[in-house]
Design goal:
Layout (H helix, E strand, L loop, with lengths): L1 H68 L15 H7 L7 E9 L4 E2 L4 E2 L2 E2 L1 H11 L8 H15 L12 H4 L27 H5 L11 E2 L6 E2 L5 H7 L5 H12 L9 H7 L8 E2 L4 E10 L2 E12 L2 E9 L1
Parallel strand pairs: 2-5, 6-7
Antiparallel strand pairs: 1-8, 3-4, 8-9, 9-10
Length: 322
C-alpha cells in the first residue's frame, strides 16, 4: 500500500515538474513573441517615417524645379525666384505637420566647365588659365606648382590619350595605388570623380572650416560659357587677372540690385572696364543643381540632382539619394 502511495506521489511530482516546464516554455515563447511583435511595430513605424521623410525631401526638390520652370526672363540672375529658394524652404514648415525641407539651387553655368578643359587631347588654354587662376587665389592656400599639378591631372583624366601632361598622371600612376584603378580618359560624369584625380584631396574638394572647396566652383554640366549674372565671386576673379576682390564685390552689388539691366553681357564691361572674350561669358543658363534636405524628428534625408531647363520644361538628368 505504501509503495503504491509513493508511486502515485512520484507520478504527481513528475507531472507537476512537467507542467511547470511547459508553462515556463510557454511564458518564454510569449515574451519572445511580444518582443518580436513590438520590434516589428517599431520597424514598421520607422519604415513609415522613412517613406514620409523621402517624400518631404522630394517635395523640396520638385518645388525648386517648379521655380526654375516658372520664369519669364531671357536671362538668369541671382534676383530670380529660383535663387531665393530659402523662401520656399521657410514655407515648408506649413506644409507638413512633423517635418520640413531646405532647398538650395545652384546655377551650373556660373561655374567653371571642366569638360571644356580639353579639345581632343589638347588644352583649351582659356579654361586652363581660368582654372589655374582660381586655384591660385589666396583662399585656397595652394602654390602655383600644386595648382598646375591639379589642372594637368584633370586634363589627363579627361583626355583620351595615355601620355601624362606636365605634373599630371595617367593609368601608369593610378595603377600603382592601393587599390589600383585606371585613368578614365573620358569626360567627367560628375565632379565627385575629382576625388580620384591626382593632387585633389578631400580637403581641396570639399573645403575646410577655413578654406573653400573646389566643388563649389566647377561643374561637369555646362554648355561652356560662364554666366556672369550668377557666378560666385571667386569665379569672377578667375575670369581675368584684372578682376580684383574690389571689382568682384562691385560686380556682385550691381547684379543683385533691382532695376539694373542684366539682359546682356555688356553690363560687365561697363561696370569693370575689363574685356572678356564674348564666347566665354553669357547671361543665360540651362543646367541647375538642386539640393533638398528633408527633416523629420531626428532624421534627415538628402537628395540632389542636376536638371536641364529647356523653355518651361525641366528634365532631371542626374539624381542622387543619400
Amino acid at each position: 500500500m505504501n509503495s503504491i502511495k509513493r508511486k502515485v506521489l512520484n507520478n504527481r511530482g513528475i507531472a507537476l515538474i512537467t507542467v511547470i516546464l511547459i508553462i515556463s516554455i510557454i511564458v518564454a515563447v510569449a515574451i519572445e513573441l511580444n518582443r518580436s511583435a513590438r520590434a516589428a511595430i517599431y520597424d514598421a513605424a520607422n519604415i513609415s517615417d522613412g517613406i514620409k521623410l523621402t517624400y518631404i525631401a522630394k517635395s523640396g526638390f520638385y518645388g525648386a524645379a517648379a521655380l526654375l520652370a516658372n520664369y519669364d526672363n531671357n536671362y538668369d540672375s541671382l534676383r530670380d525666384n529660383w535663387a531665393k529658394s530659402e523662401l520656399l524652404s521657410a514655407q515648408s514648415t506649413t506644409l507638413f505637420t512633423d517635418g520640413s525641407f531646405m532647398t538650395i539651387v545652384e546655377d551650373e553655368a556660373g561655374k567653371i566647365p571642366l569638360n571644356k578643359l580639353v579639345n581632343g587631347n589638347e588644352y583649351n588654354q582659356v579654361i586652363k588659365d581660368i582654372l589655374i587662376r582660381l586655384l591660385c587665389l589666396p583662399e585656397f592656400g595652394l602654390d602655383e606648382r600644386k595648382a598646375n599639378e591639379i589642372v594637368d591631372s584633370i586634363k589627363d583624366w579627361i583626355d583620351a590619350d595615355s601620355s601624362a601632361s606636365g605634373y599630371g598622371a595617367e593609368t601608369s600612376y593610378y595603377s600603382s595605388l592601393d587599390p589600383p584603378y585606371e585613368a578614365k580618359n573620358a569626360q567627367l560624369d560628375c565632379i565627385e570623380e575629382l576625388l580620384m584625380v591626382k593632387g585633389i584631396t578631400s580637403e581641396i574638394f570639399y573645403g575646410t572650416k577655413d578654406k573653400p572647396g573646389l566643388a563649389g566652383f566647377v561643374t561637369a554640366d555646362s554648355e561652356g560659357a560662364i554666366n556672369i549674372n550668377t557666378a560666385p565671386k571667386m569665379v569672377l576673379r578667375a575670369l581675368s587677372p584684372d578682376i580684383t576682390v574690389e571689382l568682384a564685390d562691385k560686380v556682385d552689388e550691381y547684379r543683385r540690385k533691382d532695376g539694373n539691366d542684366l539682359s546682356s553681357t555688356a553690363w560687365f564691361l561697363i561696370v569693370t572696364g575689363v574685356t572678356i572674350k564674348p564666347e566665354l561669358i553669357t547671361v543665360k543658363s540651362n543646367y541647375f543643381k538642386i539640393i533638398s534636405v528633408g527633416s523629420m524628428k531626428n532624421m534627415q534625408q538628402n537628395l540632389s540632382g542636376v536638371v536641364k531647363r529647356s523653355g518651361k520644361s525641366v528634365q532631371i538628368i542626374k539624381w542622387r539619394q543619400d
